[in-house]
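Problem 12. The chain below contains 380 residues. Write out its predicted structure in token notation.
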Amino acid sequence: MHALGRLIAHEFPVKRNFIYLMNAAVAPLPLRSSQAVCDYAFEFTNCGNLREQDYWLPLLAKTRELAAGLLDCSPECIAFGKNTTWGLILASLLLPVESGEEVITPADEFPANYYPWLPLVDRGIRIIHVPQQNHRIPLSAISASFSDKTRLVTHSTVQYFSGFQQDLAGLAQLCLDRKTFLVLDGIQSLGAIPFSVKSARPSMLSADAHKWLLGPEGVSLLYVSPETIPLLRNDYRGWTGIADPMNFNERPQDSLPHAGRFEEGAIGRAGIAAFHESLSLLLEVGIDTVRERILGLTGYLIQELSRRSYHVLSPHSSTDERSGIVTFEPKHDAKALNFEFRKRKILISARNGCLRISPHFYNDTGEINVFLENLDALDR
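Solution.
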């Protein structure tokens, strides 16, 4: 067994119990991330907060550096929060979009990138939903929706249902040319597909740790570009997002001049400990290797489903549009089939009357073949 195979066998004991093909829903924790939670709990049980300076603060700083490495940005651009929705709500509240202006977003986004924008309507802001075309969102359709009142575009890097991967560099250029903010929901791509803020150029990006990033639920990262920080409203302030939070008597203090201003209070430390290890694993494997393995598996799966005459809704050909998600229409009821797969310890997702398969780098073609064999038996 080569080195990567040994690492996978060690870090993902879930493979001994299930064929786990639902990483676009909630991914399993690697063993090192699980152990980090135990180590943190043991440390706090025995020492309390005694090692704040030599244990917790260095761990937080290193986790921020790892997240910044994944996004190709400065650590000062990264804040940690509780979920994707938290970051998108911040974007909707703090970016300077005014009454009479417009926000563009694809129709049928995941609800996390839908509900945070609805309250803007009460502020006199119009939300424009761009219809999907064959489960894709062409840049031409977004461009055609622009007007002289457009102030912001919000978009998922990868669509949760079809797995369509947007041309982020093209979208960024479109927003740059029109002088509009770009807010990204990155949860379905970070950890699976290489990403650089230097190419995608978002004003803000939010992503939870619990999918492709292989982290725990309840931990997320928020990216805010340095150019965006001075433009934000200062309506969101907490006691730790200031210059000298331990100086309790100096009031008021200015907010930090970087993304750390959004870490408004205590952070879930056990979750950060786990996230640190998850990020270290992804960077150890290499995000290019992760992408190659994922696209190899999804490409093989699409080929086999098409050979069986299934209608695959996910992009077929271009690797630039494909991701870790393959969605197809089964012959029988998707929820009933999903239930039967679970009884066979094959974990997938049922979405909108379809089956969604989402392998990560730790999966292999043998597991895909077992899924297909069971599909042949169950969906005749």
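Discussion. The first strand starts at residue 19 and ends at 20. Students who got a different answer should revisit the alignment rule from Section 12.3.
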